[in-house]
Amino acid sequence: MDSRSHTPVTAALRLCLHALLTGLLALVAVRAVGEGAPHTGAVVALTLVTAGVYGAGALAGRPGPAGAGARAGAEARATSVRQRASMRPGTRAAALWLAALCTLWLGLLVLSPDALWVAFPLYFLQLHLLPTRWGVPAVVVTAAAAITSFVVHRQEIAPGAFIGPLLGAAVAIATVLGYDALFRESERRRELIVELVATRAELAEAERTAGTLAERERLAREIHDTLAQGLSSIQLLLRAAERTLPGDAPATAHVRAAREAAQANLAEARSFVRALTPPDLEHGSLAAALERLCARTTGPDLTVRFAVSGTPVELPTPYEVALLRTAQSALANTVRHARAGRAEITLSFMDTSVALDVVDDGRGFDPSGAPVAERGDGGFGLPAMRSRAATLGGTLSVESAPGQGTALAVTLPLAGPRRSQERAA
């Protein structure tokens, strides 16, 4: 017998089914012998053969060792009830075994009217081993055969002859179909729990990674804006002091040593900043990182292009980080919400500023509506981008309308004196 799982409940149900069918077969044989009915020998022999065939099938379907039983149970739980209709070799063997049982039962039904009670466990076997589209008709045919046998043997038509088999068939169908529905529901809940556990682990890892990257960016920005700038200023002041001192002055050697120490520590600070920058900026310029981002985001439903305008200049690390994170967040919003077919990122270098534009042809939205953080979807992309730009003295503008796409632009200032200072750093 094929069993879909080997839980204690199903094991108890199988034992009850074995006991019911065995007891009913014994009842047929005992009544045939006790009443001295005609064909007693044939009834007893056919009863024993039926019991033997049933026992062989039941033993063949018993679970193996513990490990094998666990594997079989897991495989069975992963297979839906409807997939039993595929008639794999094991299912075909079970169907042949069931056909042999029903044939033997029909023989008993011809010889003894008491055999009609065996129809009740057969109902459950048919519904369990056969697909629903075959199991229900098989139960109906079995009930009809039991009613016919009663009418033929008793030579009378009584309400109980119809009510008993039909009621038993209805109960069996309702029980098995109800169990199938509960089984499918439990499988859906199990799969949902597995998915939720996996998602929780992924979210925890994503939060940890995001926290690590955010802390790396903060440290890089702090080191660049404080230590590196301070060491750069100290180096420039010591260089100026060294130029003003006479060559034979006693303090010249000390000033030169201090300047060299400041230069060495500045190089060390810059190496720390490079090590703490986002991975996309470790092996190339901001333009190269943005181009890789566009290539990664491009897919079957979205084409992302990248362009550079103006003459590229070296940007401070906080600027590169801010522009890269803004582009990543904007493209993430495009993929998740815009339903766009085309997007374009443009990095523009101007005399006094650097700008990043992200434009898509998606469904757009109303920028004058409620902020994203207030709409209940849990997003904080635009406020985060606006805050990041404001921290660096820049601005973020968004132009969009329902059905007309979205254009996002972030502009960061690059004043002449500041650019010279940043290059000197």
Could you explain the architecture of this structure?
It is built from twelve helices and five strands. Strands 1-2-3-5-4 form a five-stranded mixed beta sheet. Mean pLDDT is 76; it is low at 1-5, 63-89, 370-380 and 417-425. It is elongated and about 135 Å long. By secondary structure, it is an alpha+beta fold. Helix 4 (89-111) packs antiparallel against helix 5, helix 5 (119-129) runs antiparallel to helix 6 and helix 7 (159-244) runs antiparallel to helix 8. The two termini are 80 Å apart.
Strand content: 5-15%
Shape call = elongated
Could you give a short account of the major beta sheet? Answer: 5 strands, mixed
Please list the strands of the largest sheet in the order they lie side by side.
1-2-3-5-4
Query: What's the Cα radius of gyration?
Result: 41 Å
Tell me the number of helical segments per DSSP (H or I, 4 or more residues long). Answer: 12
> Would you tell me the overall average pLDDT?
76
Reading the helices and strands in chain order gives: HHHHHHHHHEHEEHEEH
Q: How many beta-strand elements?
A: 5
Given as residue ranges, the uncertain stretches (5+ residues, pLDDT < 50) are 1-5, 63-89, 370-380, 417-425
- Give the termini distance in whole angstroms: 80 Å
What structural class should be given to the helix and strand makeup? alpha+beta
Relative helix content: 55-70%
List the keywords.
disordered N terminus; alpha+beta; 425 residues; 12 helices; 9% strand; five-stranded mixed sheet; 67% helix
